Amino acid sequence: AVTAGEYLMAFGLFGFAGGATNWIAIVMLFDEIPGVFGSGIIPKQFKGIRKTMKDMIMDTFFEPSFLSKQLRKKFGPYSSPEGVEQKLRSILADDEFNARLERKMDALQGKPAGLLLKTMGLGGDTLKSLVKDFIAKLADDISPHLSAIVSEKAANPPVNAIVREVDRLMEERLQELTPNKVKTMVEDVLRVHLSWLVVWGSLFGGVLGIISNAVGY
User: Fold this and answer.
1) pLDDT score of 71 more than 70
2) Is the pLDDT of residue 121 over 60?
3) Which of 29, 100, 152, 197 has a CA 20 to 30 Å removed from the CA of 146?
4) Residue 80 phi/psi, 5° resolution?
5) 9-54 tens-digit pLDDT
């Protein structure tokens, strides 16, 4: 009869073999082992990995039709005179704009032009109010022209030029990825998942050892 000790021995031996085999396979992915054909596949294929990464990004995020659609959405709120006017008026009410205007007003007070305006009763809040009113009225006049320009850009966004520039920048950046950098990058992403391969290899190996022992092998 097979004793519990023999089952335990089979579980341990087969489990160790399964875990060790998976661990060696993982090591062979990232490191070249002298005399072992096929080892170090990731650093050896770093150019292919770089190209695959680039192609995946260019074919998804920077695919021309997708990019064109996204640009149209971005330009959408400004493609009508009302949208442009609303945006300009919202800027006038923005705290950051008002703070910048205050700084400009303060700087103007110490200049001859500012002193002249002050003597004319156009200093401080009065001048600020006049400037904002002028911009608001100007918004009414320029909104149709700005919306026409934006609509033209939205209808024919320079997608191909954008794609070419992104492609060029990515190519330059990818050239900096050496075999070791590619290896480290892939290893950082897969380390946790690959560790589980060792655990499951040990577990399944142990189970197979028990089964083999039970059927008499």
Assistant:
1) no
2) no
3) 100
4) -125, 150
5) 888 889 999 989 988 888 888 888 888 788 888 888 888 888 877 8
Other CB atoms within a 10 A radius of the CB of residue 34 amount to: 6
Q: What is the pTM of this model?
A: 0.52
From residue 15, give the alpha-carbon distance in Å to each of 12, 169, 205.
Answer: 5, 49, 4
- Tokens, residue 200: 């499951």
**If 0-12 CB within 10 Å is exposed, 13-18 middle and 19+ buried, where does residue 10 land?**
buried
How many whole angstroms separate alpha carbon 194 and alpha carbon 142?
60
Amino acid at 99: A
Answer yes or no: is pLDDT of 79 > 80.
no
How far is Cα 84 from Cα 139, in angstroms, rounded to an integer?
8
DSSP secondary structure code for residue 33 in this structure = P
Q: Which of 47, 51, 65 is nearest to 170 (CA)?
A: 51
- Residue in 31, 50, 48 with CA at minimum distance from that of residue 40: 31
Query: Closest by alpha carbon to 49, among 183, 198, 190?
Result: 183
Measure the CA–CA gap between 177 and 46, rounded to whole angstroms: 8
